What we know:
Layout: H1 2-19, E1 51-57, E2 61-63, E3 68-77, E4 82-85, E5 90-93, E6 100-103, E7 108-112, E8 119-123, E9 135-139, E10 150-151, E11 168-169, E12 179-187, E13 202-205, E14 212-219, E15 226-229, E16 234-241, E17 248-251, E18 255-265, E19 279-281, E20 298-308, H2 313-318, E21 326-328, E22 333-337, E23 340-342, E24 348-350, H3 358-361, E25 364-367, E26 370-372, E27 378-380, H4 387-393, E28 401-403, H5 407-410, E29 411-413, E30 421-424
Parallel strand pairs: 1-3, 2-4, 3-5, 3-6, 4-7, 5-8, 6-9, 7-12, 8-12, 9-13, 12-14, 13-15, 14-16, 15-17, 16-18, 17-19, 18-20, 19-21, 20-22, 20-23, 21-24, 22-25, 23-26, 24-27, 26-28
Antiparallel strand pairs: 10-11, 29-30
Amino acid sequence: MKNFTHSIWIFLLAFGSLFAQQEKGIIGTDNWLYGWTDFKSNTADYGEPTQILAGNISEDTKLSKRDVYLLLGNVFVTNNATLTIEPGTVILGDYDSKATLTVSKGSAIIAEGTETDPIIFTSNRSLKRAGDWGGIMILGDASSNKFGKGSVVSYYHNLNSSSYPYINYGGENPNSNSGILKYVRIEYAGKKLRNGNHLNGLLLANVGSETVLENIMISHAAGNSFEVWGGQVNMTKMVSYRANNNDFKFNFGTQSQLNNSLAVRSPYISSSSAGTRCLYVSSFDDIEDVDFTKPQTSVVAKNLTLLNNSDDLKADIEKGLVKEAVYVAQSASLDMNKSVISGFNPAVIFEDKIVINQENLEKIKFTDMYFNNCNGNIFVENNSNNEDLENWYGNSAFFNVYSKSQNSETFIDLKNERRPDFRLRINKIIASNEND
């Protein structure tokens, strides 16, 4: 009887391990990347366009899966209209006209694909490159920490002055609704601007909390994949793949939540210059623009996987190709929980204007984290002495763990080009709270 009971316990333990899942990093009983993502998008051929989208969409309009659309020049959804896009629809951003799609304040986009039939925005070139077209901008009427309202006039190529009313954003409605983006891919966006910067895959400017943002993949963006200015934005199951600049950038007093999301960087594609990270959290670009009576940027990030996919991390670091994963700037708050940071140099950097004291450290939280194979963990910019930070975040009360595992040993399946699985391996991690 004793042997039988012992056998039952062994069976239950093994059975439970099969169906268990890691609590850190991206999570799910199944690989939620399967079906709607594409990590080999340069091989896709969607055929020639059959319809053209140009100028203003000033009345409710529906795009159909049966057509392939060419986005030509600067296209605006205006006049409180709603642009509805059927699952499976393909929209090609025109290279020659550096096409952009802007959902103006008061208007909406309903782009609700499915797991098996995502909506695709991509380049119209046969040989696609990052920055082929502009990207998508959604301009809402929630608030920010800036004085007055904002404009994105500098973000357009050959903008006609008649379009100026459609490029303003900002208001006082935190719960505003700009529509739905769900099961959507945005590929090869981020055209270069006259000032040398780039547009983003998706810019969310003062977007309100009723806007639905789920299962969005942005790949090969020449600028940032996701950029959020102000507003109250909730994002779930976001994927940024091989962005040239930041994967997720939050700014101008946004109150955002980012959940169960993935950023994969490549040392030979993602820029190694200062200012490009997986996660960039700031409250302003110029302090003179900020109204400090308003809430400053606050981001809650849970179950993220931030991964530098390097075959030889040490060599890539020596070549200067790998930088930090997370950057937190002055006056910004970050609460990061149950997340994985793997293969960076180091994991986290604080702006050197942040004074290291209890008040400021309580605004920047890292709890239940898994720091893996990073060349150092948390530092202040331009300061190699991080003893105070290591003592603070290494306290057992924060439940952070540290490891030096290779990516191939850490994640379930990185090499599968069609169906990669970036969840942590079950029972393969030997981690501790020792941060040396």
